[in-house]
Amino acid sequence: MVKLEYIKKQYPRTRRVHGNWYLSSYQYKFNVKRINQCLEHLRKGELVGLKCRSCNTVSFPPRLICPKCLKMPDQWVHLRETATVATFSGTYAKESGDTEPRPYPVVAIRQDGADTSWLANLPEGYDFFKVYVGMPLKIKWAEDKKGDFSDIEYYEPIEDPSIEMNKKEETEN
Amino acid sequence: MEKVGIVGYYQVKPETDIQMSRPEMIFYAARGALNYAGLKRDDLTTVISATNDYYDGKTISNCFTVDAGGAYLKDESKVEMDGAHAVNYGLMRCLSGHHKLALVWGASQPSTFYYSCIRVLENDPTFDRPINLLNDHTAAALGMRAYMNKFGVSVEDIAKVGVKNHKNAAKNSLAWNEAQLPEITVVDVIYSEMLSDPVTKLMHAMPCDGATALILAPEELAKKIIDDPVWITGVGLCQETYYLGDRDLSISISMEKSAQKAYKMAGIEDPKKEIDVVELFEHSAYEELILAEALGLCEKGKGASLSSEINGEIPINPSGGAIGAFTPCATGVTRLVEAVKQIRGEAKGYQVKDANRAIAHGQIGFCAQNNIVFILEGGKK
Asked: Strands B357-364 and B277-279, how do they pair?
């Protein structure tokens, strides 16, 4: 009986062969002329979003097409430097030198004045367990700006007045 | 509208690492469905497949499976989405009058590639892919957090969905072995392996190998083939934008719209009273709650309080759902087949009493970007 199991292990019903898929040979085009207007502003330390003239939706990062109206938004509007956490998660990953995987925050951030959110960074090593939905943030600009989205080095958490208010209410009650 | 009936089906038992090649697996599904209906291959007029080029590691993956899928010298076409969309394609072909019998199958083998890595290729290549943060786990986690935060739903409420589906899967002999957990508790689900906070392994649909096929026939023909075929009386589908940041992840507008279309077509006014059983494709446990809410079975944010066990008020996923067996590309077809089994009284061990009208659902994309809803009816009432 044992011998049979051994044979079964040695000769499974299927064999595997490796395949190749040269994904790095693919290239993707995107419209630079349009996004450059936003990138120029980023170089100067300003934030702009694209506003659709039909539905007034402001997108940041700017979207090429407004899905609701099927139009190309063309109105650039200035946005504030503050933002809030729209939703978040944490993935567990090992970096070089780590023995245990540690949580790494994945945060969807909504810029104040915009209607859409995007995935951006918190300060490196920021404790994932301190993140909450609605957490106020402020942009920390990179020191030498290159004119791309990496100019927003990270979003820095700022003091949340609503927490103090909640605490006061609790003590009063 | 002329009705189209489901006259045959077959499910290949899902396994972690199936000892079959892809064409072999598809052959068993196609042959099984033909045997169920008692048909010959020559009777088929069209074959629709649901596969994905990335999952198969090969472009135009359907050209490779023509022989196995029964499409030799037939009018064959492919849907690169969930199998439920392939059923819709087959349905449209039958309704056009040009085709009589349509074989629809979906199949994939995630044991031959890294599923989460392939899902990354679904991302926008110029913006989301370089950030390297978005895959099916983190997308599910973002959606779950948004849902929990908006409606004040606890992790325990969502874990209960995982518990229910794993327990139901234990009763279903055609669920995935690893998902058949009759003794599971909420604590087990919450403390299982963390995929992406707060989504854990036991509240997420983990991919496994498998194939499912079904046969569609127009009304007159269907009545000749088998007794009491199950009829498709309504269908609705809807797309949302790709960008997660543009959507409200705590609700599903696309599901709401597709459900409304399907209800209107089937003449359903109060889904909670008129529907007997629901088969949802939930990629993650929280999606089942959001989708049930969007179907109008309960108020928004109250999905957790719905009694959805097999003997409950409105049974959702008595077969175990996608958490019970998630075979990419075939899951949508499986949901239809499970609904058919419930209506025909063939669901041994997890039969819902007197089920006559069912919802089957398929989806594709991060956080259920695209939803498709089918209303299936038997002839009992």
From this structure: parallel
Q: What is the ipTM of this complex?
A: 0.79
Q: Do A88 and B142 touch (CB under 8 A)?
A: yes
Does A154 touch chain B if contact means CB atoms closer than 8 Å? no
The residue of chain B with its CA nearest to that of A109 is: B245
Residue with tokens 């508790």: B185
d(CA B360, CA B333): 9
B152-189 pLDDT tens trace: 999 999 999 999 999 999 999 999 999 999 999 999 99
Sign of CA dihedral B39, B44, B48, B49: positive
Residues of chain A with Cβ-Cβ distance to B246 below 8 Å are 59, 63, 67, 115-116
Least CB–CB distance from A119: residue in B58, B131, B249: B131
Place of tokens 């076409």: B77
* β strands within B64-163, DSSP E: 75-79, 102-108
Q: Please, are residues B294 and B252 in contact by the beta-carbon 8 Å criterion?
A: yes
Report pLDDT digits (tens) over A126-149: 888 889 999 999 999 999 888 888
- Report the side by side order of strands in the sheet with A48-51: A58-59, A48-51, A75-78
Backbone angles phi, psi at B103, to 5 degrees: -95, 125
Residue with tokens 């596969």: B51
Question: B208, B14 in Cβ contact below 8 A?
Answer: yes
Task: For the domain made up of B4-111+207-225, give the CATH fold.
Answer: Peroxisomal Thiolase; Chain A, domain 1 (3.40.47)
Q: Which of B142, B199, B241, B286 to mutate to test the interface with A (most CBs of A within 10 A)?
A: B142
Give dist(CA B233, CA B95) in Å, integer. Answer: 12
Residue spans of the domains in chain B: they are 4-111+207-225
Contact A119 B145 (CB under 8 A): no
